[in-house]
Amino acid sequence: MKDSPANQTAPGSLALVGAGPGARDLLTLRAMQRLQQADTVFYDRLVDEEVLELAPASAKRVFVGKHVGAHAWPQDRINAVIVAEALKGRRVVRLKSGDPSIFGRAAEELTAARAAGIETEIVPGVTAACAAAAQTGLPLTERGVSDTLVLTTARCRAGDPLPDCARHAKPGTTIVFYMSVGQAPRVRDGLLRLGMPPATPVTIAVDVSKPGARTVSCGISMLSETIIQHEISGCAIIFITCPKYGSG
Amino acid sequence: MKDSPANQTAPGSLALVGAGPGARDLLTLRAMQRLQQADTVFYDRLVDEEVLELAPASAKRVFVGKHVGAHAWPQDRINAVIVAEALKGRRVVRLKSGDPSIFGRAAEELTAARAAGIETEIVPGVTAACAAAAQTGLPLTERGVSDTLVLTTARCRAGDPLPDCARHAKPGTTIVFYMSVGQAPRVRDGLLRLGMPPATPVTIAVDVSKPGARTVSCGISMLSETIIQHEISGCAIIFITCPKYGSG
């Protein structure tokens, strides 16, 4: 989507670019092209050293330091620096892990840029759930087994109601938890309370598509112990296909 | 994920490759590379003429004719020809619209190939929901508005229970319907019955990322009329962010 700049004489542009799950070769051709044409690249978690290298040597690279569970830069400040940079007439690429529209805070950055009359674009990317499924060889939907896919997070912030994963845990649904390793006890308890059998298989895809990528499996009742035992922290995708149980 | 071939002397391989939503430049670099190395490419809906052109001129191209709502080739037959081709020692690419793991029938083709001892791999792709969000500029999750994304289909087949989109239509959830244009009345009725306000905005992204891509919006109560009025058929993504209503 492109918005025409309002009344800038030398308007810059902002592209929110999905960088995919980490591996450089999981970038799209369009993402690579935007990087190659960038004057300035804003990034947070660096998914792959080689991704940033796609930008010209002359491009400015700005780390805006968002890690899971630790926001070194508040979102408002990120919005402000991105907008300021584009208003200098530069082609700004804001690199987002995965796809910008899924847990990527895209709306806030787009709104700020549009308000300043900056041309905006989103370049979609491979979201972590798809990369995790590819890595493990387990489908996210399967005929006769699962016809609905739910992407959610068990994380919450002060004042927000906790996303209730349990409300979506119906037979025929695959639930994928993003950024939820720290919330494993809450996920486990929520699902067990529904009557999900304790041995229901859960898959944990760690460092998907990156060096050291691995897959760990367990029953839902052992989710927390398994995460501790395998020293899994941060960058992992937890997924589970809800079997037929209870009243459905 | 790679499985070692069991006891083939000249084993071929099968890569289920996500072709993304249609535009050639929304292929990943890895997808492009697999196409360039392919001996045989199986495809169904041709998303972009240029995508197939990435395969070598010498590569065999086989149309296995799956269109929305019309399966010219039964899945069993597709499985059989893919396996037979790989067993000849060929590098087989099975091109899938979007991401292979989401509504891509990946499990059936992988199971058939693994049973035959064929090395398999999934190359993830950009799924239609992400491309639709990028095209329309509307996020799929948004802080304080939507923290869960549901990908589903309102389609059904004989003997299957209809996927009940209503069970996932909770405040704070964005629901994306794939391949559901023909089921618009069912979607509308299901959501209205829940007490969703008739004016709740619905976005219909048509021919996402392809030539002629367009976006149409309406209130949920007008979904069917809008689809007819704009002559939307087949390739469209319908999405809706559930507002706070009813008991939640």
UniProtKB/TrEMBL annotation, chains A, B:
CDD domains: SUMT. Gene3D superfamilies: Cobalt-precorrin-4 Transmethylase, Domain 1, Methyltransferase, Cobalt-precorrin-4 Transmethylase, Domain 2. GO terms for molecular function: uroporphyrin-III C-methyltransferase activity. Residues 14-218 form the Tetrapyrrole methylase domain. Its EC number is 2.1.1.107. InterPro entries: 4pyrrol_Mease, 4pyrrol_Methylase_sf, 4pyrrole_Mease_sub1, 4pyrrole_Mease_sub2, CobA/CysG_C, Siro_Cobalamin_biosynth, Uropor_MeTrfase_CS. It is an enzyme of class 2 (transferase). This is uroporphyrinogen-III C-methyltransferase.
